Amino acid sequence: MCGIIGYVGKEANALDVLLKGLSSLEYRGYDSVGVAMFDRMHRLSTVKCAGRVAELEKRVQGSGDSYCGIGHTRWATHGAPSDINSHPHGSANLQIVHNGIIENYACLKKELTELGYTFVSDTDTEVAAKLLDYYYMKRRGHFDAVCETIERLEGSYALAIVFADDSGTIYAARKDSPLIIGIGEDANYIASDITALLFKTRDYYSLEDGDIACVKADCISIYNKGIEVKREKQTAKWDHVAAEKGGYDHFMLKEIHEEPEAIIRTLRPRIKDMLPDFSADKLDEDALKRISRLHIVACGTAMHAGLIGKFMFEKYAGLPVSVEIASEFRYNDPIIDENDLVIIVSQSGETADSLAALRLAKEKGASTLGIVNVIGSTIANEAHSVLYTYAGPEIAVASTKAYSVQTSLLTLLAIRVSLLRSRIDEKEAREFTHELYVDAPRAIKEMLERASEIKALAGNFAKSEDLFFIGRGKDYYLSCEGSLKLKEISYIHSEAYAAGELKHGTISLIDDGVPVIALATESRLYGKMESNIREVKSRGAEVTLITNAESEFKSADHVIDILPISERLAFLPVATVLQLIAYFTSTERGCDVDKPRNLAKSVTVE
Ligand code: F6R
Predict the structure, then answer these.
(1) What does pLDDT average to over the chain?
(2) Distance from the alpha carbon of residue 289 to the mean position of ligand 1, in angstroms
(3) Residue 299 and residue 606: Cα distance in Å, rounded?
(4) For 325-365, what is the HEC assignment?
(5) pTM (2 d.p.)
């Protein structure tokens, strides 16, 4: 999704900060880039283009010193990626960059056209810029013009604004799209997320909906509904090293290797005497005991993590769980009430559909719990309770370590709820917790050490244009994630099927040489999976089996055996293997692993 960066300071290094910030934002996914900066003579100029930050760098060479500027990476929504549609947009009086979608842009555009404004781009952002120009021209002052403008905007926005006649101030405003103000020494910053600023500062304020900030080199003032407000200063736990590649070829590979540590970091503060303990998170345990139904709502990989959570809560805590895609949940009039707990799982904590689902659940009276990686993000702030995952910054667009920590934390929570509901005793809970906290990270490490074996197999997949994942039970849920990972970064068409469902249609696609990845980690289903493998083999498929029980299977062409770990947690090392398969297949095909086409890291628009 789009990214915003802004700098105003006493040193004339705005261009460096903007370019470095824009590079740090690249991971969010983007197609165009641009900056607006003041020069030493306080003249405001704009440079923008479709393409990468490297292209912009060429175009701004020799721009000279600057004390203030704003920059943007655009992920096209209204209008194709092009120089003209890139941000900033504006007029001779001002320039703005914008994340989000202005939903009433068409009627505002009509109104402004009647007032004599003309438009050069297809964007909703240019409409917001011209509306601001209109209020500015009415000579109401910068701040009032910003207030009047945002009152007219419907939809979501994070805005950074500079006025041509004030080279020392950036205005920032937000509604339903994240925006932070970074606090520096003799300099302040604006960014859509803290990772873009870690090379300068870890201290920041998170703007809330309706906030307008007036940011200068030596002061930050924040207003809401015209009244000055204080926002709590936050400090990112991550440092800039955590947001760098650290010797790996790609962020994705680095992040997969971080999984064992990330799981331990996430679980450690919630384990006492080898039993789950969420007292530091201030979870309302009485409420957890009382709930009658659980809904886990999320998007993409986070939703797949929710499927593993479903398995754990149903099997061990005896709680009925529905897992729902947030974009469906929000429009399907879900049946939920005050006896339900709605868990929103989100790495970024800013996903627009997940946030809308959270608000809907609250409206309907349910208790809500966010499982979120980014501290201070909107979902974390708005949910009744929050459990942070401590994965550290996830930069690669494809989510990997976030999935591992989400599934681990959901499992730990399921163990706690099982205990609370007396479905398991302390002895079993202790064993389970030990397996999760000690054995699972070790099993993942061992699979990471076997990366070359996985790489060799991925070489075969890279030549295919279609691939199928099959599994049953938890292995089906894992297949969904394996398939998503592969398709998003290697562009190979792939599907995940519950193995027993294949013969109800999809098996007609199996032909000579079609690769099938079969997952089999549940002993009660080994026999069934062996039959499913035979079914596809007899139609020509080339089967790669990932299992914890190699000796139970006779028909697969290739086997990746998972080292001994309790069967209920085998999904964790298997997930790592699936991520590595996707990674190596993608690199073999020469794809842009960390920034796959058309995708954005944080989906802050619908
Ligand atoms: C896939 C991926 C996405 C995200 C989804 C939700 O690799 O990263 O499917 O999982 O967009 O994002 P968050 O977790 O930030 O809400």
Answers:
(1) 93
(2) 30
(3) 11
(4) EHHHHCCCCCCCCCCEEEEEEECCCCCHHHHHHHHHHHHCC
(5) 0.80
